[in-house]
Write a structure and sequence with these properties.
By secondary structure, this protein is an all-alpha fold. The protein folds into two domains: 84 residues, Arc Repressor Mutant, subunit A (Orthogonal Bundle), CATH 1.10.10.60; 132 residues, Tetracycline Repressor, domain 2. 63% of the residues lie in helices and 2% in strands. It contains ten helices and two strands. Strands 1-2 form a two-stranded antiparallel sheet. Helix 7 packs across helix 8 and helix 8 runs antiparallel to helix 10. The protein is globular.
Length: 244
Amino acid sequence: MNETVHSLPAKTALTARKTRTPTRAASPATLPAASVAPSRTNDPARTMAGILEVATTEFAEKGLSGARIDEIAAATKTSKRMIYYYFGSKEGLYLAVLEESYRRMRNIEAKLNLDDLPPEDALRRLVGFTFDHHHGNQAYIRLVMSENMERGSYLAQSKIIQELNVPAIGAIDKLYARGVVQGVFRPGLDTIDIHASISALTFFNVSNQHTFGLIFKGDTRSEQALAARRDSIIEMIVRFMRTP
């Protein structure tokens, strides 16, 4: 959630229009010992992490088509050759960035200790975390928006994206089931739909902040406005799930 590639992949038709098939990134453990990597460090994992960090900003700001490997190489003080060595291609690096963004979010979610809280408190913590994560990691939102513009064609080729997101649904499954047993939540709800509702409300707050604020002339980005919006979203989800 890999084989080493030494050349750029050929174009293939993924959707009605042509896109490029991302080459799978090589992990340091799978790099062949006999290969001579154009490295400037004895720590490949650290080098790859640095490239991913800079590439995240580049792809988030400019999208796949607008991002430039030259700029990523310059910012990381590496070379295009090194980036292609580790990630195979621009598309391979883009996919690695998407996967890493999802991985980071799910890793933090796993540390929320929702099982230690009463069901409603656990739900409030999960929704609040999602709101805070999206607001504090707006590059993640832009990456997701960018991949939706690509109609999900690159993320669809990920071998680990399904595995990465299983824990998110599992956490909601558990807290919802506990809530139903205790009579706190009403039965008959779908946990994927609950996840979608949480995502939609917290995502919109970042994705549409500029246009929404401009159209309705509101200060949607002040600390007070954000706190009020956060509380409102939490309350909406809780009331939707709560037993009447």
